[in-house]
Structure formats: C-alpha cells, structure tokens
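Notebook p. 47: complex prediction with 3-isopropylmalic acid.
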Amino acid sequence: MKTLLLLPGDGIGPEVTAESRRILDALALPGLTVSEGLFGGASIDAHGVPLTDETEAAALASTAVLMGAVGGPQWADVSYDRRPEAGLLRLRGAMNVFANLRPARCFAALASASTLKPEVVDGLDILFVRELVGGVYFGEPRGIETLPNGERRGFNTQSYSTHEIRRVAHVAFELARLRGGKVCSVEKANVMESGVVWREEVTRLHAERYSDVALNHMYADNCAMQLVKAPTQFDIILTDNLFGDLLSDLAAMSTGSLGMLPSAALGEAGTPGLYEPIHGSAPDIAGQGIANPCASILSLAMALRYSLGAPEAATRVEAAVEAALDAGARTRDLGGQLTTRQMGDAILASLR
Ligand code: IPM
Ligand code: MG
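Predicted complex, structure tokens below:
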C-alpha cells in the first residue's frame, strides 16, 4: 500500500494542488491512498503552528508528500520560528531530504515566452541538484543579538561536512550517468572555507567512483552569469542550499515561467520524498483561479517516478502537459487566458 500526502498550503497552493488531485483521480492507480493535511499559514490559522507534530508524523509515514506552496502577507507578523517558511524547513529537515532535484527545462512550445532570446534557451535542459537540509539555512550558531554598544547583529553559519557533501554529490553523479554525463559543481571556494571543502570532497568522490562523468567547478557568481549567457552548456548543476535557491530561480525564469517547474526532494533510499513546485504562494493572484498548475502537476509526475513506483504514469503525465502546451493551452503567466481549471482540463484531455 502506498500513500501520498497532499499539503496544499497557502495562496495558489490549494488551487494548483487541486488540479494535481484531478490528474491523480484520472490515473486511478491501484493501491495508492491519497490524504490531505494543513501546512504553512493554513496550519497557523487552525493550530497556531505551521507544521503540527501530527502532520509531520503523517509525512514521515507516507510514501511521498506533494506540497503546494507556503506563506503570505497575512503571516508576516508571526514570530520568526513560527512563520510558514519555518514549517517548510522543519519538514525538509525532519524528512532529511538532502537532495533537491530541480529540472529547468525549456518546453519547445514556450521558447518564445522566455525573456531571453529563443536561440539562447532553445534546448535548455538543466537539472539542479541542490543540497537541501544543510548550509546556511540550518547552520548553527544563528540568531539576532544586541551588542554592548546597542547595535543589533544578525548572524548565520554556512557549514558543510564531508558526509553532507558526498551524499548529495552521489545523487548528482548517478543522475548524470542517466542524462548528459556532465556535472558542474558550484560554490565560492575563492571566499568561503565551506566552498573549499565542498570542491575538494566533490573532486575526491569523482576520482574514487565517477571518473566516467565529466566534472567541472564554477564559482556561483560566474554560474549566474553563464546561466544567462549560455545556459545550454549545463547538464547537472550541483550546489549548496543557498546558491541552489538563487540559481534555480534564475534558470527557471529563463525557461519562460516559474509556473512550469517542479521539484523533488529525496533522502536515503526507502524514505519518503517531498515534491513541490518551485514557485511560491503568489499572494497577488491567489484565489483568482488563474495560476498555472503545470509545476504542481509535473511535481506529481516526479513523485510518481521517484517515490510511488509508477514511472509509466509519470511519463504519461509529462507527455500530457507537453501535448497541452503544443496544442496552445496557456495560462496568464504563459501569455494566455486559460484559468487554472481550464489548464487542468486541457492536460486531462491530453492524458492517454
Ligand atoms: C524554495 C523556497 C524556499 C527556500 C523558502 C520558501 C523557504 O524559496 O523552495 O526555493 O528558500 O528554500
Ligand atoms: Mg526559492
């Protein structure tokens, strides 16, 4: 028996997750139970915290979790450790999903939707492997203190140890063998000791086990530049939590819309995966029914492939999204007029 926990969350999260649910219902996979829980601001409103112990336990006991989005201006004033984003970090940490797969792929039908020239993004197909449960997001010490002179000081710690680097690098190298055979490892070893260790550990693992994969190293600032200048040079980009956050948004936008891109966060084999669109809760358009559900639906496809043991269903869902785009289906973010529901209908109609 497999279980999928839906955590629609806030803003456009529930709207886009509802479309994934319709796809799931249409697939009618035998032996799959789907349940739903409150997360983020929705959970703060109901329970005072963004992630209850019960929901955390349900996530850990499930086969996969599909999240919508969290956060919004309503919860800007809740204390820092109880804001919706804190719930997401707690969930990622509790599930120990250290490898975050963020494919940035330019669908042929959308090449002209990019703010970059079509010839620059044509064929763009990058897979970010972002470390997700370490680095400056989780490093200690952290905090805000008042200094003797009355000034305030906010501080965080960026740190990476051997095992944290090796386990995520393994994932990147293994995936490279299934794709274009190239890994670009990104840090700032020129100014950060954590980057020095990152570079050396990746190099060591590569020499030990993955010399068939082409490895190069790049400073994060240069990578940002290269992603705009010549993004098709990349196959897999392996990087840390913070650089991965920034660079994946950058690359996502060059594919046409943040509304298209899914993600998967994976831990040790046999543990549940966490799937979520890369986009946020988009409070400005929430409740209007115009959000693009593709990123959620493609995240569902990743869950089918990586956690739920249904790779054929995953391929069908991805093909349906592509077919709907080829047939001209477009939500606002893609320059069209379709509502979230109509986009879901178009994808459902293309599902074979
Ligand atoms: C992301 C988001 C999160 C992050 C936020 C919501 C905590 O931006 O998944 O990219 O920074 O990791
Ligand atoms: Mg982000």
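Notes: The CA atoms of residues 180 and 219 lie 21 Å apart. Residues 1-98+267-352 form a domain with the Isopropylmalate Dehydrogenase fold (CATH 3.40.718.10).
Next step: compare against the earlier run before touching the bench.
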